[in-house]
Here is the input.
Amino acid sequence: MGGFMRRQDRTGLRGFAADRRCSLGSVERLEPRGMLSGIGIAIVPPPPADGVVIAPPTTAVAPIQVSLQVSLQVRMPSSAPNGLPVAAVISAVDAAGRPLFSASGSVTVTSSDAAATFPATVQLRNGRALVPVTFRTSGPQTLTVTDALVADRTATASTTVAPPVVATKLLVMMPPQVRAGMPTTVTALAVDAAGRPAPTFSGTATVTSSDAAASLPMVEVLFKNGRATFPVSFATVGKQTVTVTSLSDSQVAGIGSTNVAAPQALSSFLVMVPPRIVTGTPVNVAIIALDAAKRPISGYTGTATLASSDAAATLPTTVTFTSGRAIARVTFASPGSQTLTVRGGVAGDIVGAAAVTVVAAPVVTRLAVMLPRAVPVGMPVLVTIVALDDAGRPIMNTNGSVTLASSDSAAKFPASVTFVNGRATLRVVFGTLGAQTLTATSGSISGTSTTQVGEVTIQRRT
Here is the structure.
């Protein structure tokens, strides 16, 4: 008998199988892993990563017989709050209480607390499951888990549930100072007599304010987990209050106060424009509404008109502010010192301006043809053509095309090429020996370069 033996022993609890493999030479023990079978949570051995290696037998080894018992285990805190979830951990373990990380299957969950909330069925993943449980009855309570297919495979954990926290008042919280006309977030928190949060408090509540002109929720606010959040916009300057009153049978209420400051008044505009602009190049101009203290007015949503000292400039007639800011796309056309003026407000008497230096766009005066000093005949070479101004600086915004000509009638190259960001590239194959030229022309602008075309010789080393 050679190779390895496989022996299966079903013992103890139904629905589980125990496997072990052994060679006739050296013994290899494999950890069990679980799978979902028709009879509950089953344990089968995983295949070896590199197969079973059989060592040469030295002495006779009797087959190994292993009895594997598997059970469930559930753990949770010894004490639990009333109305708040706690985590219960369900695990599959062997007879020694060691976790079986490869076990899988379905278990059902029940509790002595009829009002508790939890999933009725959970799946074991890697031998365990995490279950949220919310107890709602104070005193000793239990949580029981059972194999979905094997009823006598079960486990129970106990906990003591604290008495529920009963809300006696509402804490109404808001910033100590707000600005009129700006939305303010208000939070109402249900607490007990000792000021502890009452997470089980639910239901709806009405909202009122000492500011008769305030903007309040149009319907009752809803509490979730003992908390409600809603927006309020005050309109009257001075100390103002917000009152929240629950509509439950055991009515609770709370009052919060704040100091309402006057709304920010538009005083000027900040016009943000680059200090130096090239004619014909569009730029984004940022316009910010400011109050008398030069602070941004984030709630300003008015409009403003634009004007420029450059009569040929392209700009929008008006802009609309969003959250106190507007963006205008402006293109100046005349070189020199120019201004951009923004005017707004109810009477159009709020002004902001910015000065800018506009420089003339660079003009292409010549073309640089970049050609190697010497090239092999019949071999392609890379040529680059660059548009330059009168100072020899590249002009990156040059577009259009150039035509090509050469003193070498046998040369091969495209008739024309197109500029991309002020640069064009091409490949040229010269066919005639000697000094040859390549000329690029665009309208009245041109450029020429000379190269020496020679033969390619190959010398062998001896």
